[in-house]
Amino acid sequence: MNLNLQPALGIALALLLISTSGITFAQQANSEHAKKSLEIYTRLISIPTVKGRGKVPEMAAYLASEFEKAGFAKSDIHILPIDKTASLVVRYQGDGSSGKAPILLLGHMDVVEALPKDWERPPFTLTQDEDYFYGRGTIDNKFGITMLTTTFIRLKKQGFVPNRDLIIAFSGDEETDMFTTRMLAYERQDLTSAEYALNSDSGGGDLNKEGKAISYLVQAAEKTYVSFELTVYNPGGHSSRPRPDNAIYELMDGLKHIQQYQFPVMSSMMTRNFFRVSGKQLAGELGEAMVRFADNPKDKAAAERLSIESSYVGSIRTTCITTMLRAGHAANALPQSATATVNCRIFPGVGVESVKSTLIKLVDNKDIEFVVLGDPTESPISELRDDVMTAVEKAVKIRYPKVDIIGYMASGGTDGMHFRAAGIPTWAISSNFMNPDEKFSHGLNERLPIKAFYDGLDHWTIILKELAGK
Ligand SMILES: [Zn+2]
């Protein structure tokens, strides 16, 4: 345990806060499972697994040693290096009695950069006050990595034999290149082939300011993220001698057409259910529009109402928006080129090519060149299924009996999209419960409520026993 931690932990224990299950933090923190979880969490936060520092293999080796100590065979533990990073795969052998394919469990070992001079606390040391654990990765995603790891260790020690294999697949560059993710999803199916995947890196419960649970979100889809560059070239010339064609004006005319266009309204079983449950909670005129949309996605007025809400428009259609401009080279010269970046969030099933051809039709000018930036990943919606939702409900409702559990579509960016693209339905179901306004993933002073850490210690155990127990 870290020295910084002990005095603060003392305070937390002295407060004897009552958790929802009626068990105090002190009791929770004293179990062997809790102590092991805090030990591993503390160690993981101390390893700065930022891109370029080459520390992910060290973290993978540390985790591998913990799995080995707990009784996992060396032959079931695989560290797969790529460049300066690595992924880790650990197979929990089942007895095969269910006849079902394995369940994959996802997380990522890397973290976003954190500069000590910008932080109030040291980013790569786990510290705490009465309410929070602080440090880079306390949420994203060393919390998930810790919980999955200690769940495997605990189940192994209990002598639990699943009725199908359980496979941990931790990636090593989720925040940047996703090379390890691609390798796990598309190239190492010998290790990762599964019926479905459960991701620790997203989803989870939302609390309001008073700590009341609002909803528990299951991330079941991600929109495709893609940016296009639109460029107009022109011979240019002296600005005192204007010519009828002009790169900037031509580009603007094209962009105006994109601005005025709305992509068709879309929905799936999952998004309609999201609006039904959220609408009932929210009530009022917006809540009613959500419920009307859920009942009938062809309800134009309801769709129009949702379209003016930046929080919801992305859940009913593909969106494209101009985000950057670059044009001209001197105040007294006609522009020789003008370039705009148009960023799109594409509804699953629509496809990058179809959006591109829509945009080309809209700008209606063959002098505007289109370039797709990067290598966008298209992934389908993983429609919610009963057995998984029942297991999640069991784990969540022990803590928050009345909370609504809702599937949702994220704007894109987790390992899940590659596994979905590889044909493995994926749901992200973090054990975290917190006020979304207090989340600082990727930002300064990233933190996790201590209550969420201890209250969630049984989350994955309950779910895995439900889905793979006898
Ligand atoms: Zn993450």
Structure in words:
With 470 residues, the protein is α/β, with parallel strands linked by helices. It contains 16 helices and 19 strands. Strands 1-2-6-3-7-17 form a 6-stranded mixed β-sheet, with helices on both faces. A 4-stranded mixed β-sheet has the order 16-9-8-18. The radius of gyration is 25 Å and the shape is globular. Residues 1-22 have low confidence and may be disordered.
By CATH reckoning, the class of the largest domain would read Alpha Beta
Q: Under the CATH scheme, which architecture of the largest domain would be assigned?
A: 3-Layer(aba) Sandwich
What is the 3D form? globular
> Terminal Cα separation, in Å?
36 Å
User: Residue-averaged pLDDT, rounded?
Assistant: 92
**CATH fold type of the largest domain:** Aminopeptidase
Task: Give the strand tally.
Answer: 19
Measured as a percent range, the helix fraction is: 25-40%
Largest sheet: 6 strands, mixed
CATH level-4 homologous superfamily of the largest domain: Zn peptidases
Bound molecules: zinc ion
Name the structural class: alpha/beta
